[in-house]
Amino acid sequence: MSAGKKWLFDTWSIYDRVLDRNYMFHREIYGAVETFLRTELGGKPIRVLDLGCGSARHIAEVLRGHEVSEYVGYDLSEAALAHAQDSLAKLDCAVTLCCASLMDSLQHEEASFDLIFAGYALHHLPAQMKEIFSAGARGKLTRSGILALVDVVRDPAEDRDAWARNYCAWLRSDWNEFKPEEKDWMCDHISTSDFPWSDVELETLAKRAGFCETNSLMRLPWHGAWVMLNDE
Fold it and tell me: Is residue 80 within 8 Å of residue 58, measured between CB atoms?
């Protein structure tokens, strides 16, 4: 989560309501991630780095089916990290939670991880920073490690401004749990702080970072999940 509009999420109540209503398709998308990891990882122990972990509500459920030896999570929101502590209590492993940005967290970590995860976080980075992030994340992976991403995405015909207009129009029309002023807050955040990639841009990022393969696990309107595979 970026520092911009950080105040909007510090109580975590608004984002919790997004999760409760599944407005951003967390259940379907994280289900696709869980299916992939179950097939790819089998039962081997894994070390997990979660960047922009938020409340870890959904990733904790995904990881419950795996032998996690260590989980390290970073987020800018202290309120979210407090929720993450509760969510991750379900995992039988060492848990470390830190308050830091995406880029700072990569610099802080010296260890290697089998799985690096970023859920609805990277769209806050401009294009150049996404490229730096991808290369930095690959450098923190084990040889056969996986970078798994869940995020918003632009449709092929959309530039960034068209995406923001279309996404906010959908939000205002369909997110009926929220009051008009809350929708205004969210659309202001989207219009000023969100920079989603297209599928083509994501594949280009992965190639430049040196990943050997990129797979789309699920693609829904303006949302999706992908994995980047390190060298075998």
Answer: no
Maximum alpha-carbon separation in the chain: 50
Encode pLDDT of 144-185 as tens digits.
999 999 999 999 899 999 999 999 999 999 999 999 999 999
Q: Assess contact for 152 and 223: CB atoms under 8 A.
A: yes
Residue 44: pLDDT band (50, 70, 90) is confident
| Sheet of 68-75, strand order | 94-99, 68-75, 46-51, 113-119, 141-152, 223-229, 213-220
Residue 158 in tokens: 């959309």
Domain segments of the chain as ranges: 6-229
Rounded Cα gap, residues 75 and 3, in angstroms: 10
Residue 154 CA to residue 162 CA, distance in Å, equals 9
Is the Cβ–Cβ distance between 66 and 47 less than 8 Å?
Answer: no
pTM of the model: 0.92
6-229 belongs to CATH 3.40.50.150: yes
The three-point CA angle 176-52-229 to 5° equals 110
DSSP summary character for residue 146: E
